[in-house]
From TrEMBL:
The protein's name in its UniProt record: Transposase DDE domain-containing protein
Top-level taxonomy: Bacteria, Bacillati, Bacillota, Bacilli, Lactobacillales
One of the Pfam families matching this protein, by short name: DDE_Tnp_1_3
Organism: Ligilactobacillus acidipiscis
InterPro entries: Tnp_DDE_dom
NCBIfam families: transpos_IS982
Domain Transposase DDE: 115-262
Length: 283
């Protein structure tokens, strides 16, 4: 049957993927995990280790299961020997591993990221509800708010994630703000500590004040001019515009392959953990 030309059986390597994730997480956990977590009391008596939970969380991101309840039920069906704890306990253990995921991601960036001379900054929306519920949504009230995304021409309620990437697409840093915060207001915080002296951005970052702020921090910011601005033809170098579009391709991967825009968590720690895991797996 496998010899038939039209045989298109969808195969999965679930056990292989999970085993590989365990090996990777074990190595990074041993290298980057803070001591106050790895050497806490009674850690050897846990029925499910931190490495095992990290591997399962990474598997959840890879399989694009946005609901932890759905993923837990799915895992109990297909890999029951990997989950010897209740779902509520699994959720608490997962949220407590947020510092570990952050340390692993930052350690990988510090030790292995190939930065080069150019960095690219941009943002994408994280809506928390459908458009019709923008003014009635209560989740994260007081933290999230209403914002506008010019690329998709839509208003949304939620957050906005600002990214800083290298030319190769490696995510060097990110920050999350309320949806109404303009990209220029988060740019200085986002770029702090960037190893690249030149920063590329889109027309949303155009402005002399931001140019001066970046200059004081030791960076040179380049943004394309709008078509009706003076000197736009001479300033808008096609090669730099093509380099800047690299981040848009990376956003497409983050959205389509990892579902970074769709976050069903209803706690700050859970939301943060989803973003951290997505960036960690992507890198």
């Amino acid at each position: 049957m496998l010899d038939h030309l039209k045989f298109k059986q969808k195969r999965h390597n679930l056990q292989v993927n999970l085993a590989q994730l365990k090996v990777l997480c074990a190595e990074l956990y041993q290298k980057y995990c803070p001591r106050y977590i790895s050497q806490r009391r009674n850690t050897t008596n846990s029925r499910v280790s931190d490495v095992q939970i990290l591997a399962l969380l990474c598997l959840q991101v890879i399989t694009q299961m946005h609901s932890q309840r759905k993923f837990f039920a799915w895992a109990q069906t297909f890999i029951p020997h990997q989950l010897n704890i209740e779902r509520s306990r699994f959720n608490r253990r997962a949220q407590r591993l947020l510092p570990v995921v952050m340390a692993m991601r930052q350690g990988l960036t510090r030790d292995y990221a190939q930065t080069g001379q150019f960095a690219i900054i941009d943002s994408l929306p994280n809506p928390l509800c459908q458009k019709v519920r923008n003014k009635r949504a209560k989740v994260f009230r007081g933290i999230a708010d209403l914002g506008y995304n010019a690329t998709k021409d839509m208003y949304f309620y939620g957050f906005k994630t600002h990214f800083e990437t290298s030319l190769s697409g490696y995510i060097l840093n990110y920050t999350v703000t309320e949806a109404s915060k303009h990209d220029t207001q988060a740019a200085s915080t986002l770029i702090a500590g960037c190893p690249c002296p030149f920063v590329l951005a889109d027309v949303g970052y155009v402005g002399q004040p931001l140019q001066e702020d970046f200059g004081e921090l030791g960076y040179e910011l380049w943004t394309p001019y709008r078509s009706n601005m003076k000197g736009a033809k001479q300033h808008n170098v096609p090669a730099l515009k093509d380099l800047r579009r690299t981040i848009e391709s990376r956003f497409s991967i983050l959205v389509e392959d990892y579902g970074i825009e769709k976050n069903l968590t209803r706690s700050v720690v859970g939301f943060w953990l989803k973003i951290e895991l997505t960036v960690f797996i992507y890198n």
